[in-house]
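A favour, since you know our structure tokens better than I do. What I am after is a single protein written out in full by you. Could you add the entry underneath, on a fresh line?


***
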Amino acid sequence: MHDEMDGPGVGGRVAGFTLEGEIATGSFGTVFRASRDGRRFAVKLVRMGPRSEREVDALRRAQVPNVVGFLGYSLWPEDAPRFLVLALELVEGRPLDVWVREENPSALELVERVLVPLVDTLADVHAAGVVHRDVKEANIVMREADGQPVLVDFGAAAYEGARRLTMQLPPGTPEYRSPEALRFAKQWEGEPYPLGPSDDLWALGVMLYWLLTRELPFGDRKNPGLVRVILEETPPAPQVLNPRVPPALSALCLRMLEKTPEARFADAVALEDALEDAAARADDSWRVPLFPGGKRSEPAPVPRPRPEGRRWPWVAGLGAAVLGGVLWGASRIPEAIQRPASTTPLPSQQAVPRQEVASAHPTGDVGQGAASEASPPSTSAPVARATPRSEEPAMKKSQKTRSLLAAGCLAGSGCASGPPQRPPPAPAECPPGAAATRERFQIPAGEVQPTIFPDSWSSRIAVIREGEVTVEMLGTWGKLPEHTRFRGQAIFGTGRVYGRFSEALLPGGEILPVCLEWVSPAGVGWEMRPGSTAKEARIWWDPRIMSVFSFR
């Protein structure tokens, strides 16, 4: 890894993985081709913090067909974790921008092989409550095994209820930003940009325009007037720039680039219907390669059927909680799809890294006058008494909240009735005998283990009080048997809940000393959510633990 990340490089070992080659690097992390126990993975290393925590949660929620597989994560190094190690499916294939240049598909092939399955995937992702926020050619890999487009790089993604890391505009590539996002930035009054799928669908329209013409509809960031052009100008119809584009597909693309969401397609499902209808009416002009020159002709696969019951708005709920419960640490990662990554370089027009990482240049928390929220210490929190999801604070802040924001009273800052302002608990030694328990049961240090609260496991939001707390292990861990429980203390700190577990209660009745801490992708502890008080902390339900050598 690069020196600035102060992490391992090619040939190094991290969390049990051997790093075999760098796939991509960017502002949000570095991705390596890696192996473990004879199996191949893509391993992404990102610094622990709120952004890495959000990426993990977005990936877990978005595990639908044709999204890169998320297989688990660990913290590294074991003794003083600084990095999150994400284990991902290793996708063999070419980025979409490379694929279209080399394959030169016809309009019909582009619709049937790329657009319909990709829009179907976005519909699933949006129905899971996730917005990708960086849809573009470089973040779609055409998988060689089945010819399907795979959506990668969730470093900029977000979901309903996720902590806002930038106040004015979310991450994004400037050329693909929607007019509504840019209008919001120009009229910004202190609230975060509202989350929704329309930005993904707009970016898809920008991408389609490029696929049809090899030109970006509004130019690139070198143009100082890019924002004005996106807001005010209508690009030439794709058919004008490329006469091989069928008129119906050209018109559909322009509709995707209308200046208001209401004038575009209502959602990904409506867009998918329109694409399928256009393809069904295709004449011979749709079967001609889009650009002069040779092509490698392959039959178009039949688009996968759309699942019934997909709906919008958000439907994360219990499904996401259960998914979080069954993701294991790195030593339990199932066999990944064993596909070598493509070595095909990206074209200079889209000089950005590919496959599971965002670019340091095109993607970032940028915007005119963008302001970032302060990040908490590297730490975050889980639950005891569940509360309904409907009690979540609204995405849009009230006038009272805006006033508190202006006064500096952000969630967790200690304003009236807010969370406690005491410091994190002091470091402490593990209880005597904990090392022997770890060795006896081969509990892997540095590996994250999911648990549940025995009496409340049906909600993503919960309330917890300080004091004694018990969690139950999911599955097995090392040689610890199923249904082992851990008993310890929940401790409130500044905007976080810390959990220190010193006893393991085995199903047979044996009680053993252990040294375990609550961890999140942001580090030790769990973040208090808005609505927390000095007596009760609201947290996301996800009580993950890690074996440690001392309480930090």
